[in-house]
Amino acid sequence: MRKYLVLVIVVLLAAVLFVRYLEREETPPAPPSSAPQGEEGVPLPPAAKTLTLPEFSPQAYQPTSRLGGTAQAPAPEISPLAVSSDPCLRETKVKDIIANYDKWRLLPKDKVKTQAERERSAAVLKSAGWQPVGNLVARIGGYQACLSLAGDKDLCVALPTEGGGSEDDMLQVCREALDPIGLVGYSLGKSGRSFCSSYFKFGLAGADGQVRESEFCDIASGGLPAINGRLCPGLPPEMKRLCLETFPKGISGCKDDECVRMWRVYEAVKSNSTGGLPHDLQPLVLAIIHKKAEHCRPLADAIVQEYCQLKSGIDQQMMMLEMTRKQHELNKELRSGRETQSAD
């Protein structure tokens, strides 16, 4: 009896050991750890300890498709400049740049009243000249136009203006960027009637003697081709010619850049596609389609980049002017001291 009992126990133990063996065979081995392991691990290369961010370029902004066709998705929530090591790039906002306009632009001669203003204008001229300043003004105008299209509200009026329509007048530049594209948005049912009214007032100055604003906007609501077919034929010969040149049947009939720009935006908004558009127009079209200001961020980032570069040059020139002034004062004191000693 004992022999059978011992035999049963041995068989049971063997069965248990066999089951455990099978379990170990079926369990996959844990993958080796890739983390460094103190003194016994392999040291990481120096490059693995730092994160290098790619340089941001507004020209490289290529949103991905979201709508039907190739219309673009929203811009990233965080600007690449937010992680820049440059305090100017990281902290500057477009509103700050606008508020400090007189500190980085070329002041008109009749606006220069003090020595400090003369020195700053000289610093701007030496460090940059008119072209970079004009480019920055144009970018700000385009950005404000983009925000206007996203919010369906004219924000150009918030910009500083000198009046007279000068090339570096922010309000004027914004108006030139907004009104034609705002009309396009209105003609496709994407923007409010106020944009049509603004275009009629500023873009068709003098036309109110031949056509009423209400009539123009009623026709324009049917699309740009409707203006060509329904409005232009009923105008006097000279006005008709200008109307047909401004509003041809299609882009092939355009005779100037503004017409081409309007038609390219028209076709892009109509097809929900920004494919083939210049990079500076893409955010404006996206703002019309999606009605979200985040699509204007690439324009804001480009403004900050250009401003910080311009500001750096101006600051250097101002520093040199200050050093020159102090040197002159020191030389004057030295001469005065020598003259006093000679008199004694």
Compact description:
By secondary structure, this protein is mainly alpha-helical. 58% of the residues lie in helices and 0% in strands.
How does the SSE layout of this entry go?
Layout: H1 2-26, H2 87-91, H3 94-99, H4 101-104, H5 115-127, H6 130-151, H7 170-187, H8 193-203, H9 213-220, H10 224-231, H11 237-246, H12 257-271, H13 282-290, H14 297-343
Give your account of this protein's structure.
- The protein is mostly helical and 344 residues long.
- It has a domain at 81-318.
- The chain is built from 14 helices and no strands.
- It has helices at 2-26, 87-91, 94-99, 101-104, 115-127, 130-151, 170-187, 193-203, 213-220, 224-231, 237-246, 257-271, 282-290, 297-343.
- The radius of gyration is 34 Å and the shape is elongated.
| Global morphology | elongated
What kind of sheet is the major sheet? none
Instruction: Assign the structural class, choosing from mainly alpha, mainly beta, alpha/beta, alpha+beta, or little secondary structure.
Output: mainly alpha
The counted number of beta strands is 0
Q: β content, as a range? A: under 5%
Helix tally equals 14
Spans of at least 5 consecutive residues whose pLDDT stays below 50 are 25-74
Distinctive features:
14 helices, 344 residues, elongated, mainly alpha
